[in-house]
Amino acid sequence: MARRPSRQLALADFVRDGSFVPYFDHNATTPLTPAARAAWLRAADEAWQNPSSPYRGAARVRVQLEQAREQLAQVLGCAPERIVFNSGATEGANAVMAHWARRLAADRKIAVNPTEHPCVLEAARHQFPAERRIELPIDAGGVVRGEAVAALLAAHPVGAVAVMAANNETGVLQPWTEIAELCRRQRVAFLCDASQWLGKRAANGLGEAGWVIASAHKFGGPKGTGFLVLPAQAEGFHSLRGGEQERGHRGGTENYPAIAAMAAALIEAETAHVPAAAGRQRWRDAFIAQVQAVPPGARVVGAGAGRLWNTVSLLLPQGVNHRWVTKLDQRGFQVSTGSACATGQAGPSHVLATIGLDAVEAGRVIRISSGWETTEAEWRGLAAALAAVDTELRHGADRIVTA
Ligand code: PLP
C-alpha cells in the first residue's frame, strides 16, 4: 500500500530511490488525512447539490451539512449554531475586525498580540487607526502573560483583545484559556486564532473562548475551507452579504464536500493524532538534541516557552536560511524559512524581530514542522541532512549550487 494514500503523486514528490520527499512544513499546510480525503470524495460524488435548493436531494445535503456542524461543535464544545463555515482564518480575522470596528464604542481600543499572523495584524491595522490599537506586551519567549493582559485592561479602555493559541513560526503557545476568561469577566471581546492549535492539541474549550478562527488545511483538511466560532453575544455579525446561508452570518453557497472533509479531519486529529502527540514530541526532541550537537551552535527559538510538539524554529550557526532550505530540498527534505506567506517578502519576520532577533539572526532561522504522517526515521534523516549541509556550507561547496 502507498504510504500516503491521500496524496496525488507528482514528479516533484519523488527522490532518487522513489520514496516520498519528507515533508516538514505542516505549519504552512498539511496533506489531506485519509479520513478527510474519503469524506471529500464521498460528498463530491453523492452530496454535490446546493444545500439551499428546494428538492429532496438538496435537503439531504442540508442535513449532512448540519451534521458536520454538529460534529465540529461537539469537538469544540459549543452549540452548533455558533459555527459559521467560511474560507479559513484570513477571512475570519478580517470579518471579526470589521465587525469590531462597526460595533465597538468609539472610545474603546483593541489590544493585539504583536506576534499574531498577518491576517490578524493587517486586518486590525486596516480597521482601527493607530490611536485605537495597543500592542500587548510579551515576555522574552513571545508569550502574552495573563497578568500583563489584566494590567492592560485595568489601565486602558479596551473593548477587544486578540491573542492566538499557538504561533505559526515558533510554535510558542499562548495562555489563551486564561486570557479568554479574563476578557469574559470584564465583558471584553476576545479573538483567538486557533489555526495552529487545532489538530495538534485538544480542541475542547475553544468553543467557549469567544471569537475563534481556524483553517481546515492546517489540520489535514482541504484548503480554502475553515470556520469561525461566534461568541454567545454576536448580534449583527454579517461577514458576506448576498445570501441567507449560515443563518445570515455569511452569504454564499456552502462548499459541503470541503466542510465534510474538514469535520472528518478534525475528528481524526482529535481521536488519533492529538493523543499520539507525546510520542511524536519525543522524536522532535531527539532531533533537537542531535542538531544542537551537530552542527554546533544551532539554537531553538522560543526554547524557554511552551511550544507545539511538531514545530522547531531553528537558528542555524552560519549561512542564510534560504540557502539551507534549498540544500535540504536538494536532499529531499521540505522545510521553510518561516511562515509560508512571508516567503519571498523582503525583511525579517515580524515574529522573530518582535522576540528580539536581529536581522542577521532572523535570516538564519528555518522552520521545521512535522505532521500526522511524519515518521521517526524522517526526523533522523533530517538531522543527518542538516549535519551534511553544515559541513558543505563550511567548506564552501555550496558556491556551485544556484538557489
Ligand atoms: N493564522 C495562522 C496562525 C496561520 O498559520 C495561518 C496560515 O498560515 C493563517 C492564520 C491564515 O490561514 P489561511 O491562509 O488558511 O487563511
Quick one: overall form?
Answer: globular
- Write down the CATH class of the largest domain: Alpha Beta
Number of domains: 2
Helix/strand structural class: alpha/beta
Quickly give the CATH architecture of the largest domain.
3-Layer(aba) Sandwich
- Which sheet architecture does the biggest sheet show? 7 strands, mixed
**Kindly, what is the distance between the CA atoms of the first and last residues, rounded to a whole number of angstroms?**
35 Å
Order of helices and strands: HHEHEHEHEHEEEHHEEHHHEH
Helical content (DSSP H or I, runs of 4+): 25-40%
Work out the number of β strands: 10
CATH fold field value of the largest domain: Aspartate Aminotransferase, domain 2
Largest sheet: spatial strand order = 1-7-6-5-4-2-3
Per DSSP, what share of the residues sits in E-state strands of 2 or more residues? 5-15%
The ligands bound in this entry are:
pyridoxal-5'-phosphate
CATH 4th-level superfamily of the largest domain: Type I PLP-dependent aspartate aminotransferase-like (Major domain)
Mean pLDDT: 91
Which spans have pLDDT < 50 for at least 5 consecutive residues? Answer: 1-18, 399-403
Alpha carbon gyration radius:
22 Å
SS summary, helix count:
12
